[in-house]
């Protein structure tokens, strides 16, 4: 996922200085023969468009999307599966440039839409979402999803999984980026930073669909940079076939975290290891300074898909293969890695579906009923760790000790008593916020009569700046200071109240609390000039009874 920062040719050189020669065409890193041998194809049959007879050999960096599966090829492939009894095909919606975002729905009953599946979903059958190509220049995950869909639709042993699971596959969630072979969407924004704010059409339709048929397990398939900062800082390449990371936001239900660590990640690793593939926890080099050798896991930001789905209560896992910046080198191995990892996760879920379904349901219920304090800010300590690297010429392993920031282990810095909820003024000022909450399936209600509350906290804008939408936490747009109203406040009829006591409490707090990093306030979704009060109140527990039976969403 880390952007490729350098351009290198590794085929016939021996010194680090010589590694910096510019490669032809798209500037892809050409790996040395020893590396190509190390990351050779694996004995897995992949029935997807890229690997169709006569197609795989046609890779040409000058073609659309570097010669990978085109939008037309993907849609034709999906349409050809349409007669399968266990398959429904639909569209989440359209991208900014108008491209279709298809989904494939596998159920024992043969439901034809997400809505139909939701109406008839058995209580003991988990829902699994598999998502590919959030970033357009990371094609292996989406290709693997197509290969898996073919096998699920074709009968046989894998199709039996659809008796125990409801499976939703979104092979290409960023079709504009895929067509241009770029990380971002056509809006020049990173979709994997927008799963809380939902300002992009691609993330909006995905999250609205997930609210229609909420997942119990999510696998988000990406690729990571092979060279880039690893080569610039360590004169080496990243070595593992794939890296993994579960949801790590502090408000993710503990039951989902335990199940990810104890069941699904081991199952995924074992499935990949059966083909000789290697795995390690997700790592990135968080800055471009060559002297800083610090390495970090993925972060805890709520806007990352991995964390946003975790805040829904799902077991949410990121998988990334060794692929960004190397074109189609090792593509069969990369796609096979995602394919095997997804099958490992599906088989683990199908082996005891009641366990997954029960753990997620209980985690959501416990989150709704909890009175525990909320962690609204935290730090991640730096510890000693290592990164698995490989020599760029000889392919010899070069595990390297590094300072390591592991987001799975945090130290809370701001802890606050859990509020009763948040109040939103009526009108155009809060319309985008209320719409975003409704898209997520967050429960809110409209006050049918005035309500008087005590101890309400208001928020005054102290600064407003431009927001960096590519940042891991797209915040910094608005800074505030809190101001507690000494006298009781009357909330008018027609305004909205969002209670914290609901299964999506994590999303509520991450979205609405002014102290939440990357939330609606800090990202600038609320209007208000410096010195103005935001149309938002935080209401403490015991603030007063609020009678609002009418749902706003």
Automatic annotation (TrEMBL):
It holds the Pfam family Peptidase_M14. The active site is at residue 320. The keyword Signal applies. GO terms for biological process: proteolysis. Keywords: Signal. Residues 1-20 form the signal peptide. Residues 67-349 form the Peptidase M14 domain. It comes from the Bacteria. CDD domains: M14-like. GO terms for molecular function: metallocarboxypeptidase activity; zinc ion binding. InterPro entries: Peptidase_M14. Gene3D superfamilies: Zn peptidases (3.40.630.10). PROSITE patterns: PEPTIDASE_M14. Belongs to the peptidase M14 family. This is Peptidase M14 domain-containing protein.
């Amino acid at each position: 996922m880390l952007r490729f920062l350098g351009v290198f040719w590794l085929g016939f050189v021996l010194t680090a200085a010589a590694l910096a020669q510019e490669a032809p065409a798209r500037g892809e890193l050409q790996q040395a023969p020893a590396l190509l041998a190390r990351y050779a194809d694996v004995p897995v049959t992949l029935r997807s468009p890229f690997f169709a007879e006569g197609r795989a050999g046609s890779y040409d960096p000058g073609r659309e999307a570097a010669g990978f599966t085109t939008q037309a090829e993907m849609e034709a492939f999906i349409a050809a599966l349409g007669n399968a009894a266990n398959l429904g095909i639909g569209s989440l919606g359209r991208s900014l440039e108008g491209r279709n975002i298809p989904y494939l729905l596998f159920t024992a009953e043969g439901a034809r839409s997400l809505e139909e599946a939701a109406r008839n979903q058995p209580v003991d059958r988990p829902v699994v979402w598999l998502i590919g190509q959030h970033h357009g220049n990371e094609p292996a995950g989406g290709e693997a999803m197509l290969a898996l869909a073919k096998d699920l639709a074709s009968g046989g042993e894998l199709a039996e999984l659809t008796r125990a699971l409801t499976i939703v596959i979104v092979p290409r969630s960023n079709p504009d980026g895929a067509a241009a072979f770029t990380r971002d969407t056509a809006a020049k924004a990173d979709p994997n930073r927008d799963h809380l704010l939902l300002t992009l059409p691609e993330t909006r339709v995905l999250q609205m669909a997930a609210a229609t048929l909420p997942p119990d397990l999510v696998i988000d398939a990406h690729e990571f940079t092979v060279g880039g900062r690893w080569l610039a800082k360590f004169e080496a390449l990243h070595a593992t076939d794939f890296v993994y990371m579960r949801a790590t936001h502090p408000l993710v239900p503990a039951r989902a975290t335990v199940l990810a660590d104890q069941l699904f990640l081991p199952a995924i690793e074992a499935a990949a290891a059966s083909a000789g593939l290697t795995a390690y926890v997700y790592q990135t080099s968080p800055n471009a300074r060559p002297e800083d050798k610090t390495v970090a896991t993925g972060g805890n930001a709520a806007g990352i898909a991995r964390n946003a789905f975790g805040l829904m209560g799902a077991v949410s896992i990121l998988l990334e293969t060794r692929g960004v910046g190397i074109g189609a080198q090792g593509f069969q191995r990369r796609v096979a890695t995602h394919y095997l990892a997804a099958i490992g996760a599906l088989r683990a879920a199908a082996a005891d579906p009641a366990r997954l379904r029960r753990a997620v349901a209980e985690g959501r219920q416990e989150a709704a009923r909890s009175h525990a304090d909320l962690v609204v800010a935290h730090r991640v300590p730096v510890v000693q760790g290592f990164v698995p690297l490989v020599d760029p010429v000889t392919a010899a392993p070069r595990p390297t000790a590094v300072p390591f920031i592991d987001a799975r282990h945090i130290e809370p810095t701001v802890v606050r008593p859990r509020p009763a909820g948040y109040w939103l003024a009526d009108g155009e000022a809060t319309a985008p916020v209320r719409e975003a909450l409704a898209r997520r399936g967050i429960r809110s209600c409209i006050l049918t009569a005035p309500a008087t509350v005590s101890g309400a906290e208001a928020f005054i804008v102290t600064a407003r700046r431009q927001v960096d939408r590519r940042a891991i936490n797209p915040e910094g747009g608005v800074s505030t200071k809190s101001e507690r109203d000494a006298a009781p406040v009357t909330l008018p009829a027609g305004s909205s109240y969002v209670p914290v006591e609901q299964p999506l409490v994590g999303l509520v707090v991450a979205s609405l609390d002014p102290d939440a990093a990357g939330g609606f306030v800090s990202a600038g979704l609320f209007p208000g000039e410096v010195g103005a009060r935001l149309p938002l109140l935080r209401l403490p527990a015991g603030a007063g009874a609020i009678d609002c039976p009418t749902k706003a969403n």
